[in-house]
Amino acid sequence: MPQQSHTISVGTTLLFTIFLFVAFFPGLFHSIWTIPASILPFARAPSEPVAPTTMTWFQKQFSLQAKSRGSYLVTDQVLQALPEIRSYKVGLLNLFIQHTSAALSLNENFDEDVRADMSDSLDRIVPEAGPRGEALYRHDAEGPDDMPAHVKSALIGASVTIPIKDGRLTTGTWQGIYYLEFRADRQNRRIVATIQGEKA
């Protein structure tokens, strides 16, 4: 019986060698493959110039009108104190109250009953005294409303952050900025406003 001769073409050998090279050395293959694009200027894709955006910071302190215990809508007062908002195309406004017995929040801006209900609800959650008038707190250096004011401040929080778009705060239709005062006597409160963003 005659023997058959098997011959492998040069092309097949070359393809098989390349396949093994790619399989065992993919990183090296990638480096070799991309050399022309990295050394030949005409092989590079033209890059579009990107205009730099300048992010700026602005900070200012202002005071709220003195109020006794209650929940107050202060959106207009904040906007009046911060005309700089209008110069920002996009950004964030952070309002921080520098006190431990008051708070800031976002909530209903239309019905005044919501503000009264908010204060009443917090008084029920954190009462000044027990059901029979007994003391509930160790810390009462400034009166029976001292420690409850601190607890309420911790529950609500000392700051709010609101996005800015095209020179305006992006609050929802029914959202307003609340100043919540937890002390019975009228208090002067300071706010630190910080804006970070891109100017128009």
Could you list some keywords that capture this structure?
single chain; 200 residues; alpha+beta; Jelly Rolls; five-stranded antiparallel β-sheet; three-stranded antiparallel β-sheet; 5 helices; 8 strands; transmembrane; YjbQ-like_sf; UPF0047_YjbQ-like
Give a verbal description of the structure.
By secondary structure, the chain is an alpha+beta fold. It has two domains: 10-43, no CATH class; 56-199, Sandwich (Jelly Rolls), CATH 2.60.120.460. The chain contains five helices and eight strands. The strands form two sheets. The protein has a five-stranded antiparallel β-sheet, covered by helices on one side. α1 packs across α2 (26-39). The longest helix has 15 residues, at 10-24. The chain is elongated. InterPro entries: UPF0047_YjbQ-like, YjbQ-like_sf. The chain crosses the membrane at residues 12-33. Keywords: Membrane, Transmembrane, Transmembrane helix.
Q: Number of helix segments? A: 5
Terminal Cα separation, in Å?
A: 91 Å
Structural class: alpha+beta
**How many beta-strand runs?**
8
What is the spatial order of strands in the main beta sheet?
1-8-3-5-6
Family: Belongs to the UPF0047 family.
Keywords: Membrane, Transmembrane, Transmembrane helix
Please give the structural blueprint.
Layout: H1 10-24, H2 26-39, E1 55-67, E2 70-73, H3 75-81, E3 88-97, E4 102-108, H4 112-125, H5 146-156, E5 159-165, E6 168-169, E7 175-181, E8 187-199
Antiparallel strand pairs: 1-8, 2-7, 3-5, 3-8, 4-7, 5-6
Helix pairs in contact: 1-2
InterPro entries: UPF0047_YjbQ-like, YjbQ-like_sf
Family: Belongs to the UPF0047 family.
Transmembrane segments: 12-33
